[in-house]
Design brief:
The chain is of the alpha/beta class. The chain is built from nine helices and 13 strands. The strands form two sheets. A seven-stranded mixed β-sheet has the order 3-4-2-1-5-6-7, sandwiched between helices. Strands 9-8-10-13-12-11 form a six-stranded mixed β-sheet. Helix 4 packs parallel to helix 6 (about 200-215). The longest helix has 17 residues, at about 130-145.
């Protein structure tokens, strides 16, 4: 199997390399691509020393790729992903470039893995905050039918890449922030990505649109508030869900207990970012009935946004 990684030197690209090595994925050839400033760096991939190359129009023809993993931003994906696909690779893209393209499946393997077979050379990877949410929501929807979802997210700085991590590190040291619009250290910022005309941010819009597409519920009522918090890694979310069918709390527990890639905490036990760091699962706790609305629950979920999310 021949693999290309585009954006190999970024936070997510490095995690992809780490996952490939840890899981001993059999790779015959691996080509790493990044911007010119990263050219010449070397990484060990599947026991081979690989040098980082500058991405250009000739890159797809270096050798026949089976898969091309993209994590270099939407502009790079829009420019180069179709070329890799035309050259015979299946592109798995981590940017927002193709997520709402009706011809591109948006896939979380344990949720809608069957959608990968409808690809035309490109598969989109959802936003990491969406991935952990729908991993919990899908089995609940299958059992009770989801009617409405309300998200409040508490997202780690690793979701913003190296510059976000550096801002938090600098804040700890008393230095000025350079990336976030206001200091992130000892602070919460209710602003992720750019603002849209309706007052939502692009991150909130992503969660709304992606939830609908992944669950195949185009008319689902969804709303979101996304907040950046001073945590280095792992996103946390508070989720309120209203269902079509009635249920007991035991019914909810039974569904989540057997749900794929979900680890359930019962009663007064609950997961935090510390529990999820470096783990594959989505951790769920604080599950409780919402007494203010019929057929509704609240739950808390935490996941490693790099390992379970962007680099999954």
């Amino acid at each position: 199997m021949n693999i290309a990684i585009v954006g190999a030197t970024g936070v997510v690209g490095r995690k992809m390399i780490s996952v490939l090595n840890e899981r001993r994925i059999p790779i015959d050839e691996c080509a790493l691509f990044a911007s010119e400033k990263s050219s010449g760096q070397t990484f060990s991939v599947a026991g081979k020393l690989c040098k980082v190359n500058v991405l250009n129009e000739l890159s797809p023809s270096l050798f026949k790729f089976d898969y091309a993993l993209f994590s270099a931003g939407a502009e790079v994906s829009e420019k180069f992903a179709p070329s890799f696909a035309r050259a015979g690779a299946v592109v798995i893209d981590n940017s927002r470039a193709f997520r709402q393209d009706e011809n591109v499946p948006l896939v979380v393997p344990c949720v809608n893995g069957e959608d990968i077979f409808f690809n035309h050379g490109i598969i989109a990877n959802p936003n990491c905050s969406t991935i952990q949410a729908v991993t919990v929501l899908k089995p609940l929807h299958s059992a009770f039918g989801i009617k409405r979802v309300v998200y409040t997210t508490f997202q780690a700085v690793s979701g913003a890449g190296r510059r976000g991590i550096d801002d938090l590190k600098n804040g700890v040291l008393g230095r000025k922030n350079e990336f976030f619009p206001t200091p992130i250290f000892s602070n919460c910022i209710p602003h992720i990505d750019s603002f849209l005309p309706n007052g939502y941010t692009r991150e909130e819009r992503k969660m709304i649109d992606e939830t609908r597409k992944i669950l195949h519920l185009p008319d689902l009522n969804v709303t979101a508030t996304c907040v950046r918090v001073p945590v280095f890694n792992c996103h946390s979310e508070s989720v309120n869900v209203t269902f079509e069918k009635s249920f007991t709390l035991k019914d909810i527990y039974d569904v989540l207990q057997s749900a794929p890639n979900v680890k359930l905490y019962r009663g007064k036990d609950y997961p935090t970012a510390v529990d999820a760091d470096g783990k594959d699962e989505v951790f769920v706790g604080r599950v409780r009935l919402d007494g203010s609305e019929k057929n509704s629950i609240n739950f808390w979920c935490v996941a490693d946004n790099l390992l379970c999310g962007a680099a999954a």
